[in-house]
Fold this protein.
Amino acid sequence: MSILSVSHLKAGYGKKIVLQDISFSMEQGEIRAVLGTSGCGKSTLLNNILGLERAFEGEIEILGTKIKAGKEQIPLSVQKRTGVLFQNGALLSSLTVFQNVALPIRLHRPETPESEIKDMVASRLEKVNMLHAIDKLPSELSGGMKKRAALARAIALDPELLFCDEPSAGLDPVTSRSLDELLLFLRETFKLSILIVTHELDSIKTICDKILFLKTGEVLLDSPLKDGLESEVPDIKEFFYTKSLFLNNNAAKQSTRPE
């Protein structure tokens, strides 16, 4: 069953067209990566799906609800069934981890008793291994801990669809790998479908079922990951080759670094 469908999306800023004619769909339980070089329109696509920007043309269907791009807002009933992990975590600095995770519950389910909110927050934090930091402020957290706390907030309402914008950005390889494993765990636990904007090759290979590869605002490839990795299309082949070369060079530097 399609959980997200984008049809003939055209978007940009002012008179500048960034996305030409984007169409793709995601199945339930799928983890899909949006790939491409800088400036190809990855973030613009995500922002338009989330309703943060207004598209010029097209239609988006989220969780069975059709939305005319640029003309209709995403209904609150649909927003409650989705979660977002922003690139920098976007935790509110003046609130504790508990207060940050409780925020969507208080906003979308104001009738929830305080005792139940405490249980829900503790449950989400436990699933991302952050229960020990429940009373800490964001300034007291490491980069990886901030991402985990933000992820706990993103799943606070048990969403069916999770959007992630560069979840591994700024993280070291070990922390990035643990975050990938956590996303896989959450997919199984919550039966999540996940759309990820990323450029991290290790993450792509570890967690993604399919890829959507963009070039200059158009879909160059919409396929299973395996087909992308084996593609002979020059731009796609170069993308994966360059990423692999970068990873291998980094690994070589690590292995030759003195103790």
